[in-house]
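Morning run. Coffee first, then this:
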Amino acid sequence: MNVPLALLGLLERQPSHGYDLKRDYDTFFGRGKALSYGQVYATLGRLARDGKVVVGEVSPGEGPERKRYVITDRGATEVDTWLTEPVEPEPHLQSILFSKVVLALMLERPAAEYLDQQRASHLARMRELTEVKRTGELMDALLADHALFHLEADLRWIDLTQARLDKLAEAVRR
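And here it is:
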């Protein structure tokens, strides 16, 4: 997730304090990886430096002053551009999974055992995600579906690679 663009998008919705931005980011995008307050305020500082947000209303707080951040036209243009551009398809032509299999074969280690362990790990994660789909809210279910589809593709690749391990071993040991 692109944190600066997500924060800009949240600010385009409405001017907000850093605390509110963190809460909204964590609610909608943080799923398992919440932002730290330090990251929120550092990002807001860079966005202000770059002219994408300005500090609007400042009110006293129990600690430091509470600043309400407002998106600028420049920030809104960046959000609009980002939203309208398609996401770059990521074919993962050189994935970690592939690299490990090739290195295991080069080093004459048991690549098939590695693939079996990876399959078990993927299946365990798929069970967890299926439970999220069953018990979670719509946003959680959609994110789980996205992850499940990627894991299913990985499993198909694992099965195909395992079926071709002998030929792959010949190719990497030349």
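The helical segments are 3-13, 18-28, 37-49, 73-84, 96-106, 111-135, 138-163, 165-172. Good start to the day.
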